[in-house]
Write a structure and sequence with these properties.
Distance between the termini: 49 Å
Strand content: 25-35%
Number of domains: 3
Oligomer: single chain
Number of strands: 17
Shape: elongated
Radius of gyration: 27 Å
Helix content: 40-55%
CATH class of the largest domain: Alpha Beta
Length: about 400
């Protein structure tokens, strides 16, 4: 059984909204054992939307649309579905009355266009929307299934997970496609692929690497009758990957590097403090994004200018004048100073040039020094990153976290 997803809205094509719903729905389809073969994004144009829906229905067993179910003139999804299926639109009296009551209770005048949300194609039944006024649609006709869901996140997520997911599970008849994601740091995608190439030749489960910013993810996917049976297929493969990659494998599924690093600190009863220049506080932001970070994160200092490094971290003017703010010596001094000042087990410092131009000392774009001070001394890692400013900053924080993690793991 195959599916296609069509996201509707000109705002998506203009880049004003990022379409995260299609990814959510693709994961739900996979969980239910239904392969998603295509995704399309169509603006608020009736002819193009109808043509796309008909094209999808010519191939897929299940078609899911996202967005375009509101009351305004550019909310055309229900009309397009009716045309694509050869249906008429009909009003559902109970929904129309529910809409009238909704506006009356809030003392808001209801315009006639709001009643568009009470319309449905003749082959459809409506999916209850507990958090909005636009019901979803579920059409079954000519051996095809069309499901339409609204765009607002607070409406889409509950309906997709609580109404659509159980329906799709029943529709497929019990097979699931289940994945586990392994997160790898400190080694490139091509090297990871070379190390596990023999595991990528299997058909069930499959193993596929894909690059992420400054790390690699491995997706291990199995088809089985149940998630439990899929896990039994996945477990031994994950075990083999762990044995091959060792400490390069830092987490599973949604675990972030910052979460894995903090968990290790907490396990050891240790703390870290950070001093940032080039990264502008983004390392501290990553650490504090993790719930409970205060148990292991002592705090941070953003010492962006040479003066700030002297004023807040007591870095000597001689060090900065002799070696420059972007240097091994300055990174070392920053890491040691923040560790002492905040009483942490470890001090981490980042200084460098993120671009887009060379700095006052003519240090090249992408050059960075990561200092790591601990109970047994201080080390400084020199790195040269490529990419735009945001990429360089992100990669520097990734390196800092990995250096700290590796130090703790020995």
């Amino acid at each position: 059984m195959t599916a296609e997803i069509v996201s509707v809205g000109t705002e998506l094509l203009l880049g004003q909204i990022v379409d995260t719903h299609a990814a959510t729905m693709a994961r739900i389809l996979a969980d239910c054992g239904i392969g998603c073969n295509r995704r399309a994004t169509i603006g608020d144009n009736m002819d193009r939307l109808v043509a796309t829906l008909k094209d999808s229905l010519s191939r897929a067993d299940v078609l899911i649309t996202i967005g375009g179910l509101g009351p305004t003139a550019d909310d055309i999804t229900r009309d397009a579905i009716a045309i694509a299926l050869g249906d008429e639109l009909e009003e559902v009296p109970e929904v129309a009355e529910k809409l009238r009551s909704f506006f009356a209770m809030r003392n808001i005048p209801m315009v006639q266009s709001n009643l568009r949300q009470a319309l449905k194609p003749t082959s459809a039944r409506q999916i209850d929307n507990p958090n909005g006024t636009a019901p979803g649609l579920l059409c079954e006709k000519n051996g095809k299934v069309v499901i339409a869901l609204p765009g607002p996140k607070g409406e889409f997520d509950p309906m997709a997970n609580n109404s659509v997911r159980p329906y799709l599970e029943q529709l497929q008849g019990g097979q699931v496609i289940h994945s586990r994601v392994l997160r790898v740091v400190g080694v490139g995608e091509s090297s990871v692929e070379e190390m596990i190439r023999h595991l990528m030749e299997a058909e069930n489960p499959t193993v596929a690497p894909y690059a992420q910013p400054a790390e690699v993810h491995l997706r291990v996917t199995a088809r089985a009758a149940t998630r439990e049976e899929a896990d039994l297929l996945i477990d031994p493969v994950v075990g083999q990957i762990k044995a091959i990659l060792g400490n390069r494998l830092y987490g599973l599924n949604e675990t972030t590097l910052e979460a894995a690093t903090l968990a290790l600190l907490m396990e050891r009863g240790e703390t870290v403090a950070v001093a940032e220049s080039m990264s502008g506080g983004s390392l501290a932001a990553r650490l504090t994004s993790v719930a409970g970070a205060s148990k292991a994160f002592a705090g941070g200092v953003v010492a962006y200018t040479a003066y700030a490094k002297q004023a807040m971290l007591d870095i000597s003017s001689e060090t900065i004048e002799q070696f420059g703010p972007v240097s091994e010596e300055t990174a070392k001094a920053m890491a040691e100073a923040v560790r002492v000042k905040l009483g942490a087990t470890y001090g981490v410092a980042i200084t460098g040039n993120a671009g887009p131009t060379a700095d006052v000392d003519n240090k090249p774009i992408g050059l960075a020094f990561i200092g790591l001070a601990g109970p047994n001394g201080t080390t400084v890692d020199q790195a040269k990153y490529r990419g735009i400013r945001e990429d360089i900053q992100r990669r520097s924080t990734q390196t800092a976290l990995n250096l700290l993690r590796n130090l703790m793991l020995g």
